[in-house]
Design brief:
The protein contains five helices and no strands.
């Protein structure tokens, strides 16, 4: 029960942590280092849920640090395609070709790099708060 609560809190924390990057992206700025907040906020939220202290918490936070930035980028491109051209994401990619796909892949890779960097920097905090009893 506590593990499920921890997963829910960490997911909400990861979504909230990626919100500044998503909002800046909506206004036309791509500030990749904002994705480094995702693992910090997910770990903080998991800790606040009083979830079990185990290695599974670190795995959950790492997976969320991959899924959430990718999902936000895909959501942005899907929303842009729908509002601008009235197309679905896959129709938009197939119609407008390489440029859109290259741009989307580039954005996903950069967001994952910065999210991974945030995970690397937050590693000690995550381990202390989710695994060890410090």
């Amino acid at each position: 029960m506590r593990l499920l609560q921890g997963i829910i809190y960490a997911t909400i924390g990861a979504l909230v942590g990626a919100l500044p990057a998503f909002l800046s992206y909506q206004f036309g700025w791509y500030i990749g280092y904002l994705y480094a907040l995702v693992p910090f906020v997910a770990a903080f939220a998991y800790n606040r849920s009083r979830g079990p202290r185990s290695q599974i918490a670190v795995i959950i936070i790492a997976i969320l640090s991959i899924i959430v930035p990718t999902g936000y980028i895909l959501l942005y491109y899907s929303r842009m395609a729908s509002q601008t051209y009235g197309l679905g994401l896959f129709d938009y990619i197939s119609h407008y070709g390489e440029y859109v796909l290259d741009s989307m892949i580039e954005d996903v890779i950069v967001s994952l790099i910065f999210s991974g960097l945030g995970l690397f920097i937050a590693w000690r905090y995550i381990m202390n708060k989710t695994v060890y009893d410090y």
